[in-house]
Amino acid sequence: MFERFTKDAREVVRGAVTSCQEAGGGTVGPEHLLLALLDREASRGSFALAALGLPVENRQPVREALDEARRRAGLSRADTDALADLGIDVTAIVSRVEEAHGVGAMSGDRPDRGRRLGRPGFGRDAKSVLETSLRIALAHRDRHIGDEHLLLALTARPGPSAEVLADHGVTHTSLTRVLYSEGEARAG
């Protein structure tokens, strides 16, 4: 499948692995793909983010929101709200776990954890994002998978990455409109 990826999309995948390694994680997740996308400049995905109000210099709040979601072990706000309805305070649980085991204990990214040698593998959710990006590219009759398809795939799947992007005005619908609107020249 990677032979169909553009240079920008391949850089995002490499950046996701690097982001995971820097965080001390053992498995690449959708949040690592999003962090790598946020680092891109002068790509189709980057231009779409900027068109939706997220130019490179304004992406720090998205990073911080992703960090917060990782502290909650990847639970989305919807998950947290559902648990609150059952009387479970996720914030209190995270605080107690971090008191006992250190900041980041629930994210799996603690630097003192035993690390495997070699590159981290892609988790099920990250693989699903990659597969969804292929389906999106095919649906739009695009010959190659670009970073914009990875971005669209992240917004198409429920979870913290899509939730954080939506909080900043980046939804699947708005991205599709920016990337595939009538009369817009498409970069390939």
From TrEMBL:
Pfam (any one): Clp_N
Gene3D superfamilies assigned to the protein according to its UniProt record, in alphabetical order: Clp, N-terminal domain
Record key words, sorted: Repeat
Domain of life: Bacteria
Clp R domain: residues covered: 2-188
The protein, known as: Peptidase
Organism: Streptomyces bobili
Upper taxonomic lineage: Bacteria, Bacillati, Actinomycetota, Actinomycetes, Kitasatosporales
